[in-house]
Amino acid sequence: MHNKIIRLLTILFFTTVGVFIIDQNIKSLFVEGWRYYSECIDLILVYNKGVEFSMFAFLDGALKYIQLVLILGVFGYIIYLKQLCYAFPAGLLLGGAFSNIYDRFIHGGVVDMVYWHCGFDFAVFNFADVMIDVAVVWILVLNFKPKFCKNRV
Question: Catalytic site residue 103?
Fold first, then answer.
């Protein structure tokens, strides 16, 4: 049992750190001035003070602390579940979340850069947002289809 918990934490740690590093490296390109414009997708720099679609921007500086508490709760819940199948998607979620929270502390807002405007305008987003969305869908599938998650630690 001890070895399985170590496996869970190892997968969780390396996935979290990997997503964080990839996202921060992408964001640094845009903070340093890189831009790209096309007919459908612009790669621009936007500092998002809220969450998805700039919701809760009115919370200003408190938002980063609220998110930090929520993410630590997610981490605690994954450890409590002790199911190896949650390690990778939880790592994606935590890596993206920690990267966006880090932006709030360093830049005062989340560094977003992908702007879709082909046929309709969509919110500006980043790699971390995509990883969070993938992780949420993955975790929902694991919750609603328990047969995909058989190996308890």
Answer: no
